[in-house]
């Protein structure tokens, strides 16, 4: 029972989690199951090539036989479920993919894990955990003066993405309530950091800025997100896995509300400092484009429960995290290039038509 099983560990947060986990002294091995959709990237895990503590299998979480075989072979003491379709804009164009992976996939995974868990001996059953990695978007949109989301905020998802994640949260909850599966659910705010696919706001803006492309801000740019450095999210997940109460949910947030325009301007100013253009500021590349349909105006997360009960708080400020992120993208031009030459290019072509 020394391994943990991770789904979606070739994606942005999953890969950061796997890498950070294996940096810990005496870390349990990781079995990593990822379908390698457009968002999955084996190169993100290149540093782990040859590391016997990391076992990678390309498989769909809907493939019950493949996941069962891994559970039987490695007997993990926990499953951390990151695998999902995660981009809101794509969910507007292709909602069916989101239902398939986020809803059906989570259901199939729960079925498979439940069968494995029920056959464990009593001590192993008591120690086992299923940690479901979810989002603050399930709570919908806040008005400017509303208090931040708490664990008891009402579910009011607005996009096909957030609705599919909400459905998966409900299934996870039901498997605890009905079958006793020891689940933990986390609802986190917007992550940023190394290895993020450049379809999401921050890496898109960095990669566009560096090649002189427009920086497309949706609508008036005054939508608010709460930004958390990915390493802080991964640290929170380790805390919840180690000490969370089975059946409980935990909000994870950066205490860091910013409008999109503030984020993009901060990025431009940082780039002006670390990689100045021959003439003018990166701010000149900002362009306002058509808004996202149904665009949620504001997210904000109250992570007080996690701080009070498990002692977690973010270690990066937005300024330090953004600096690390910009440096990472500048120092990893090959990773960026590899992504840009793939499916990403088609996506940009379709999304940002004039
Ligand atoms: P991502 O899109 O970067 O990665 C998703 C990974 O899941 C990819 O490697 C992909 O290949 C894999 N995957 C997709 N469908 C699969 C399937 N059917 N079977 C197996 N693997 C599959 O996503 P991310 O940003 O790393 O998000 C990870 C999780 O965290 C998601 O569940 C997301 O909802 C949640 N989350 C993300 C954020 C954020 O800001 N990115 C914030 C809060 C919560
Ligand atoms: O809140 C957590 C969620 O954060 C996660 O669950 C999602 O998986 C993750 O993708 C993210 O969702 P958002 O929709 O908030 O992230 P995104 O990076 O797509 O957009 C951030 C904000 O920036 C949002 O208000 C839309 C805006 N935006 C985005 C893009 C891609 C732009 O203005 N221009 C853009 O080109």
TrEMBL record:
Its EC number is 4.2.1.46. Residues 5-325 form the NAD(P)-binding domain. It catalyses: dTDP-alpha-D-glucose = dTDP-4-dehydro-6-deoxy-alpha-D-glucose + H2O. One of its GO terms (biological process) is nucleotide-sugar metabolic process. SUPFAM superfamilies: NAD(P)-binding Rossmann-fold domains. Signal peptide: none annotated. Its cofactor is NAD(+). Keywords: Lyase, NAD. Belongs to the NAD(P)-dependent epimerase/dehydratase family. dTDP-glucose dehydratase subfamily. One of its GO terms (molecular function) is dTDP-glucose 4,6-dehydratase activity. Pfam families: GDP_Man_Dehyd. InterPro entries: dTDP_Gluc_deHydtase, NAD(P)-bd_dom, NAD(P)-bd_dom_sf. This is dTDP-glucose 4,6-dehydratase.
């Amino acid at each position: 029972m020394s391994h943990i099983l991770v789904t979606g560990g070739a994606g942005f947060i999953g890969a950061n989690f796997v890498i950070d986990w294996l940096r810990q002294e005496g870390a349990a091995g990781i079995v990593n199951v990822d379908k390698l959709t457009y968002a999955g990237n084996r190169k993100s895990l290149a540093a782990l090539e040859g590391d016997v503590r990391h076992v990678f299998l390309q498989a769909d979480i809907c493939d019950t036989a493949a996941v069962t075989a891994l559970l039987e072979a490695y007997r993990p003491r926990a499953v951390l479920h990151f695998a999902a379709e995660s981009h809101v804009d794509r969910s507007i164009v292709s909602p069916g993919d989101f239902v398939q992976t986020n809803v059906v996939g989570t259901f199939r995974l729960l079925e498979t894990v439940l069968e494995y868990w029920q056959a464990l001996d009593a001590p192993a059953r008591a120690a086992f955990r299923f940690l479901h990695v979810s989002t603050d978007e399930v709570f919908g949109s806040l008005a400017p003066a509303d208090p931040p989301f708490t664990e008891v905020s009402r579910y009011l998802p607005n996009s096909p993405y957030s609705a599919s994640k909400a459905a998966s949260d409900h299934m996870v909850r039901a498997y605890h309530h009905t079958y006793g599966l020891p689940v933990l659910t986390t609802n986190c705010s917007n992550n940023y950091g190394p290895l993020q696919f450049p379809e999401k706001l921050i890496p898109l803006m960095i990669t566009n800025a560096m090649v002189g492309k427009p920086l497309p801000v949706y609508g008036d740019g005054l939508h608010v997100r709460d930004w958390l450095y990915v390493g802080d999210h991964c640290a929170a997940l380790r805390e919840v896995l180690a000490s969370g109460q089975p059946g409980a949910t935990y909000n994870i947030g950066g205490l860091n509300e910013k409008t999109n325009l503030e984020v993009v301007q901060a990025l431009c100013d940082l780039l002006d400092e670390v990689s100045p253009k021959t003439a003018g500021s990166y701010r000149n590349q900002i362009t306002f484009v058509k808004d996202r349909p149904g665009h949620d105006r504001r997210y904000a997360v109250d992570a007080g429960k996690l701080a009070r009960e498990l002692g977690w708080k973010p270690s990066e400020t937005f300024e330090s995290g953004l600096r690390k992120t910009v440096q990472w993208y500048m120092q990893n031009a090959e990773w960026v290039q590899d992504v840009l030459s793939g499916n990403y290019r088609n996506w940009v072509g379709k999304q940002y038509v004039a």
